[in-house]
Amino acid sequence: MRLLLLEDDDAIAMGLKYSLEKEGYEVICAKNKLEALNSWQDSFFDLCILDINLPDGNGYDVCRAIKSKEDVPVIFLTASDAEVNVIMGLEMGADDYVCKPFRIGELMARIKTVLRRSGRNKDSEAGGNDGILAIKNVRIHTGTAKVGIVNENTGKEDMVELTALEYRLLLSFYNNRGTVMTRSRLLENMWDVSGDFVNDNTLTVYIKRLRDKIEKDPADPQIIKTVRGIGYILDK
């Protein structure tokens, strides 16, 4: 697994690189926005760990550039846990958000979780890189993290664009199909409980957006159904 680490603090970068390499990761370090973008163009990465405050810009710019080309998992590192910054990162497609100072064990656990959920390691929850998961007329292509809707007239798939969090939410429903998912359980699966910046309103927004993209009639959902007073369920 090759990781891109963008961190302008030499002490933090050296410590993280050492710890990550001990875990078996190959780590390419960048100190600023330009170095990160050049490294991205020159190589393939399984995950990017991006500091936000940089001498020549910010990690948001790097994340935006990466996500415009490929849906590679991104974890932000930042000294600020202001809600507006967190939401901005998540809306941009970031997969997790770790505030400094942090414990190295916590970061390692988050890296493994993000890689597993993105289908980029052998223990992926999606069941492998070459699988196609079916939910009614929805097809989840785990190898490419793409989602298609089968046209009932032509039988062909119309691809829909999901953000990383929408895709993760859909996988969470699939992996728990037939089971009622409470709102707290969904938030656990998506942000590992520690994301105390996430609230019910945020989850409601993502579920609405996901329904808008995959349901034939979002006002009368037949895939992700509401269980009043409890949560949601995706039937087997």
How are the SSEs ordered, and which strands pair?
Layout: E1 2-6, H1 10-22, E2 26-30, H2 33-42, E3 47-51, E4 53-54, E5 57-58, H3 59-69, E6 74-78, H4 83-91, E7 96-99, H5 104-117, E8 132-135, E9 138-141, E10 146-150, E11 157-160, H6 164-175, E12 181-182, H7 183-191, H8 200-214, E13 224-227, E14 231-234
Parallel strand pairs: 1-2, 1-3, 3-6, 6-7
Antiparallel strand pairs: 4-5, 8-9, 9-10, 10-11, 12-14, 13-14
How would you portray this structure in words?
With 236 residues, the protein is of the alpha/beta class. It has 2 domains: 116 residues, Response regulator (Rossmann fold, 3-Layer(aba) Sandwich), CATH 3.40.50.2300; 75 residues, Winged helix-like DNA-binding domain superfamily/Winged helix DNA-binding domain (Arc Repressor Mutant, subunit A, Orthogonal Bundle). Helix content is 39%, strand content 23%. The protein is built from 8 helices and 14 strands. α4 links the parallel β6 and β7. The radius of gyration is 18 Å and the shape is globular. The two termini are 34 Å apart.
What's the average pLDDT?
82
The number of helical segments is: 8
Number of strands: 14
Element-by-element helix/strand order: EHEHEEEHEHEHEEEEHEHHEE
| Distance separating the two termini | 34 Å
Look up the CATH topology of the largest domain: Rossmann fold
CATH superfamily placement of the largest domain: Response regulator
Major β-sheet, in short? Answer: 5 strands, parallel
How much of the sequence lies in strands comes to 15-25%
Q: Could you say what the CATH architecture of the largest domain is?
A: 3-Layer(aba) Sandwich
Strand order, largest beta sheet? 2-1-3-6-7
Structural class designation: alpha/beta
Oligomer: single chain
Evaluate the radius of gyration: 18 Å
Number of domains: 2
The CATH class name of the largest domain reads Alpha Beta
> What share of residues is helical?
25-40%
Taking pLDDT < 50 over at least 5 consecutive residues as the criterion, the unreliable ranges are 122-130, 192-197
Q: Given the C-alpha coordinates, what overall shape results? A: globular
